[in-house]
Specification:
Layout: E1 4-9, E2 17-20, H1 22-33, E3 39-43, H2 45-49, H3 53-61, E4 67-70, H4 73-81, E5 88-90, H5 99-104, E6 107-111, H6 114-122, E7 129-134, H7 146-161, E8 165-171, H8 183-201, E9 208-210, H9 214-219, E10 227-230, E11 249-254, E12 257-261, E13 266-267, E14 273-274, E15 279-284, E16 301-304, E17 307-312, E18 320-325, E19 334-338, H10 348-355, H11 359-365, E20 371-374
Parallel strand pairs: 2-20, 3-4, 3-10, 4-5, 5-6, 6-7, 7-8, 8-9
Antiparallel strand pairs: 1-12, 2-11, 11-19, 12-15, 13-14, 15-18, 16-17, 16-19, 17-18
Helix pairs in contact: 1-3, 7-8, 10-11
This protein binds pyridoxal-5'-phosphate.
């Protein structure tokens, strides 16, 4: 005899739903803008940290931000195509990027190496390109090494004098700003100050100097300079854990089936969990392909009928099983997988903890197959 005593299919397939709440993004933007005298750039890379780049951009611009930041030029061009006219900076592009398109779309570009600058200068139709020179202030990632900085500044200045480009910004990025006491913050600030001085000696007079992302914006005014680049904070993530910010995502899905099983029933691949006694199992149509990390198996919880319930067994690609104990639930009932946490549901921080990762990775991985819904907003929400 089968272990399942009963199985009921959901009356109709309702997709998983990822809901974005612009009011939360608006509140976060206002909180951040109130903490600095600098210009706020809303960083909307990776589709606005999975929340929708245009939604986050419009909401942030209506609530104190005046600039937009992205990594690739393609992301910047998509913002322009959506009708956004605010200044946009794109900071990560290959040497062979479409520099002409950047200038045509009015997108500022960060330049972190002489090779990039030479490629830009060798491209026709790039007169007037707006450039932010990027100094590596401790990441060993993007940005020019200090040994290459002076020649980068001088070359940029010569191109500026010829009318080819305008250096409008100088930027750095701090590697350890989530920990305000980390010595790399001092090193980074010091190196940036040196870089600003060297640029000045080369004759550059950019209007913007920027070093801080979310964590430094919230913890260290000395890093603010004229502009702060804030991404995570807009969507409720404070890497410094000093400021309560609002989560803006809710992920729900209906139970697609409910079954009663006997004690001793192994659940899912490899039977990593066995029912200790008779219990009721619910089936969720969400798995690691939807952004629920498989590594969270055995730890993650969801909310069914207002109660936290554990996911049991291994999270599959498309499915996960929730243990409902002796409670009943009907197929079609909505399960909250994560949300802002205001009703006891797990948050992106909980999921990050269960997965040994950052909330950033949770939000950018979620919902490839979910229906996306953006809540309506009052006048301050969406521009
Ligand atoms: C992603 C990124 C930011 C935004 O960082 P948050 O911590 O998400 O605010 C700022 N600057 C650079 C260079 C980035 O790559």
């Amino acid at each position: 005899m089968s272990a399942l005593a009963s199985i009921t299919a959901a009356p109709r397939t309702a997709p998983a739903r990822l809901t974005v709440d612009p009011a939360a993004i608006a509140a976060n933007a206002r909180e951040i803008a109130s903490r600095t005298d600098a210009v706020v750039m809303a960083v909307v890379k990776a589709d606005g940290f999975g929340h929708g780049a245009v939604t986050v951009a419009r909401t942030a611009l209506a609530n104190g931000a005046t600039w937009l930041g992205v990594t690739s030029l393609a992301e910047g061009i998509a913002l322009r195509e959506a009708g956004l006219t605010a200044p946009v900076l794109s900071w990560l592009n290959p040497v062979a990027a479409d520099w002409t398109a950047a200038v045509a779309a009015g997108i500022d570009v960060a330049i972190g190496s002489l090779a990039h600058l030479e490629a830009l200068l060798a491209t026709p139709s790039t007169d007037g390109a707006r450039v932010h020179l990027h100094l590596d202030t401790g990441m060993a990632r993007d940005g020019a090494e200090p040994s290459a900085w002076v020649s980068l500044c001088r070359t940029a200045r010569r191109a500026e004098q010829c009318g080819r480009i305008r250096v409008v910004g100088l930027m750095g990025h701090l590697p350890c700003a989530g920990d305000p006491a980390h010595p790399a913050n001092t090193t980074g600030r010091t190196r940036f100050a040196w870089g600003l001085g060297a640029a000045r000696e080369a004759g550059l007079r950019p209007e913007h100097r920027h070093l801080a992302a979310t964590a430094a914006t919230l913890t260290d005014r000395r890093s603010h300079h004229t502009l702060v680049r804030v991404g995570a904070g807009l969507v409720g993530i404070d890497p410094s854990a000093t400021t309560p910010l609002a989560g803006a995502l809710t992920l729900t899905a209906p139970l697609v089936a409910v079954r009663r099983v006997r004690g001793g029933t192994g659940v899912g691949y490899d039977h990593t969990w066995t029912a200790p006694g008779p219990t009721t199992l619910g089936l969720l149509p969400l798995g690691y392909a939807d952004g629920l990390p498989r590594v969270a198996s055995g730890r993650a919880e969801v909310v069914v009928r207002g109660r936290r319930r554990p996911l049991v067994g291994l999270i599959s690609m498309d499915q996960a099983v929730v243990d409902l104990g002796n409670d009943t639930a009907e197929p079609g009932e909505q399960v909250t997988v994560l949300g802002p946490g205001t009703h006891g549901e797990p948050t992106i921080h909980d999921w990050a903890g269960w997965s040994g990762t950052l909330p950033h990775e949770i939000v950018t991985g979620l919902g490839a197959r979910a229906e996306r819904v953006v809540l309506r907003q009052g006048p301050r929400g969406l521009a």
